[in-house]
């Protein structure tokens, strides 16, 4: 019995030791493979470049777009940031939709072949953001860890925000290992930050990313680049920022815009435009790259310019048109927002009329602007302008200046304000809103005793008190 017990005990001990050793080796091997996979995510070559090359119909090479790419004034700065040559800071790219922020980033990534760079698109849902971050870093969040099958509480039984924190912890380890090898910080680009919701979850995510950005910038480990169309992201980051650099990306100056249009036109149609046509197109759509791209791809450029103006005007009217003095009180909340937008648009048009110069021969259009606090004063509301910025009706620049979102939008403002009877229609809407608000603040007091023609007789009694006596009509008293 003793021999059998010893044999059984020895067998169990060997099996247990072997199982424990295997589990330990698997655990260490898994962690090592997770770091190695994340290291490979920062090796040269990036799927983002392949997708961009397919979208542009050009092969993936460092010089593929040399003949057609327009060198923006900010491109050299972006190249230095993406290449890891500017350490000690993290960056916020801020500008209107379609100004070329993402294109500059893709061009800079292409020039270094994605070496040391990871890029992802933000999303309002934290779970989707988690998945995209894992895809960019090649990190599985322990979802393929076999130990999860033998535990009561799996490693994925948590929140998306904690998973993002775990991924950033792994990224920090990878950055430390790569720093000794390359001597440059890694670059993490988060595109379309404005898609994150302006709620508690969104604020927690932004705070988490900014804390990491501050720490890594101080240690020169990882350079995080935030790319946003909306001003509220800047306001949120500004509260805790100490090492943040802001790069404002605006419309192309006139000379760059005309060069871009000429290059695009040559690429798609093979023709060469004269200066007069180029300047006329610029006068209609300005230096917005996405507008220039649409015009260049069109067979009838001037018809496309008119279509862009019509679409911008229609978008503004659909969102902000006012209903006049006959509107129903049920739509007052929406009409407050619409009337405020119309008042600001009218103020921008009036200011443009008073400006000494609205067009510079070198830089092009000079749009009228108001400081943010003055725009809020004009609208008499402080909470509307950021929503208007999100809908690309107005734009808040990095210097807190409010203007039309684009040159076609400013032209749309001028057409709307110039319509006959518009100002009277706006004034009637504002008066109707005031009347509805006044009616909502009014309370009606009905004295039932006075319905039958009675009256109150108020006298001052001794001691300073008042005495109220109801006096009915004589015929009513006789009837009673």
TrEMBL record:
The chain crosses the membrane at residues 6-26. The keyword Transmembrane applies. InterPro entries: AAA_16, HTH_AAA, P-loop_NTPase. Keywords: Membrane, Transmembrane, Transmembrane helix. Residues 89-224 form the Orc1-like AAA ATPase domain. SUPFAM superfamilies: P-loop containing nucleoside triphosphate hydrolases (SSF52540). Residues 318-437 form the AAA protein C-terminal winged helix domain. This is Orc1-like AAA ATPase domain-containing protein.
């Amino acid at each position: 019995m003793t021999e059998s017990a010893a044999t059984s005990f020895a067998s169990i001990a060997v099996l247990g030791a072997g199982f424990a050793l295997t589990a330990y080796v698997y655990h260490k091997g898994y962690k090592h493979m997770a770091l190695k996979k994340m290291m490979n995510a920062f090796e040269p070559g990036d799927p983002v470049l392949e997708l961009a090359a397919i979208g542009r119909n050009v092969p993936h090479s460092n010089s593929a777009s040399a003949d057609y790419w327009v060198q923006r004034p900010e491109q050299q700065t972006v190249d230095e940031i993406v290449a890891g040559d500017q350490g000690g800071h993290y960056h916020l790219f801020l500008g209107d939709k379609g100004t070329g922020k993402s294109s500059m980033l893709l061009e800079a990534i292409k020039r270094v072949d994605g070496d040391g760079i990871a890029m992802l698109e933000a999303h309002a849902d934290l779970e989707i953001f988690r998945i995209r971050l894992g895809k960019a870093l090649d990190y599985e969040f322990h979802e393929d860890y076999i130990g999860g099958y033998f535990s009561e509480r799996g490693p994925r039984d948590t929140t998306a925000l904690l998973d993002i924190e775990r991924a950033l912890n792994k990224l920090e380890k990878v950055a430390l290992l790569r720093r000794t090898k390359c001597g440059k910080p890694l670059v993490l680009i988060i595109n379309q930050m404005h898609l994150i919701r302006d709620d508690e979850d969104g604020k927690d995510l932004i705070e988490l990313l900014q804390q990491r950005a501050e720490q890594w910038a101080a240690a020169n480990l990882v350079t995080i680049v935030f790319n946003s169309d909306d001003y509220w992201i800047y306001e949120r980051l500004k509260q805790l920022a100490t090492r943040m650099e802001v790069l404002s990306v605006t419309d192309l100056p006139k000379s760059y815009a005309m060069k871009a249009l000429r290059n695009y036109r040559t690429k798609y149609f093979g023709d060469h435009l004269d200066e007069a046509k180029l300047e006329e197109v610029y006068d209609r759509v300005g230096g917005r790259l996405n507008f220039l791209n649409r015009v260049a791809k069109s067979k009838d450029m001037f018809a496309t310019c008119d279509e862009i103006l019509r679409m911008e005007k229609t978008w503004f009217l659909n969102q902000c048109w006012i209903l006049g003095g006959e509107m129903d009180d049920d739509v007052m909340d929406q009409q407050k927002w619409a009337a405020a937008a119309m008042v600001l648009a009218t103020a921008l048009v009036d200011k443009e009329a008073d400006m000494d110069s609205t067009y510079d021969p070198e830089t092009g259009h000079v749009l009228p602007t108001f400081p943010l606090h003055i725009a809020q004063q004009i609208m008499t509301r402080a909470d509307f302008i950021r929503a208007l910025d999100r809908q690309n009706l107005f734009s808040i620049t990095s210097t807190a200046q409010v203007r039309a979102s684009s040159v076609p939008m400013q032209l749309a403002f001028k057409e709307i304000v110039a319509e006959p009877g518009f100002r009277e229609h706006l004034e009637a809407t504002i008066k109707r809103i005031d009347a509805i608000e006044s009616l909502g603040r009014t309370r009606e007091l009905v004295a039932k005793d006075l319905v039958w023609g009675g009256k109150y007789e108020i006298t001052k009694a001794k001691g300073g008190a008042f005495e109220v006596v109801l006096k009915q009509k004589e015929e009513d008293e006789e009837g009673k």
